[in-house]
Amino acid sequence: MIVQAVQSKQMDLPLRMSQAGARLFADLLEAGTFYLEWGSGGSTLAAVRSKVRQIVSVETDHAWIDRLKQHEEIADAISAKRLVFRHVDVGAVGQWGVPIREEKVRNWPRYAVDPFVATDLNFDVILVDGRFPDPLPACHCQLCRRGCIDIPSRLQISSFLYHSR
């Protein structure tokens, strides 16, 4: 399973997490069936290369999604309907898809709930890595309580926002 950086000839897509986090992530993917992530890149490619049956990736940067779709393995997973990108328009975004203004602040909650409204999958592996790391675990807990997520699902929080401060 993938523990180090995920690389390809087309695009370097490293896992942006510690080695211990990457090992845990690999173990979770190995045991998972339905994978959900907030934030895409190296984790998306790692999921594509795993045995996970279905992958849903929620992303705020449409240009980044278009770039990822050019990667051969990711394109193949999309064609096979194994990978679905869900773009949530949170307005203009900067580095890492973080909103730079609040012009579409009303859309921000959609980032948390979109995959549960748009699919009927019972995610058993969930990676919170991205734009709104604080409310997502709380949303996850509420959805578990309401039966939208099967228990036990596995939640990994790996946010660059906390690592870079």
Give an overview in words.
- Helix content is 37%, strand content 17%.
- With 165 residues, the protein is α/β, with parallel strands linked by helices.
- It has a single domain, classed as Rossmann fold (3-Layer(aba) Sandwich), CATH 3.40.50.
- Strands 5-4-3-6-7 form a five-stranded parallel sheet, sandwiched between helices. Strands 1-2 form a two-stranded antiparallel ribbon.
- α6 links the parallel β6 and β7.
- The longest helix is centred in the N-terminal third of the chain and has 13 residues.
- The chain is globular and about 40 Å long.
- The termini are far apart.
Distance between the termini: 30 Å
Q: What share of the residues does DSSP label as strand, in percent?
A: 15-25%
User: Structural class, judged by helices and strands?
Assistant: alpha/beta
SS element count, helices: 7
- Spell out the helices and strands N to C: EEHEHEHHEHEHEH
* CATH structural class: Alpha Beta
Q: Ranges with pLDDT <50 over ≥5 residues?
A: 1-9, 159-165
Helix content: 25-40%
Architecture (CATH level 2) name? 3-Layer(aba) Sandwich
Number of strands: 7
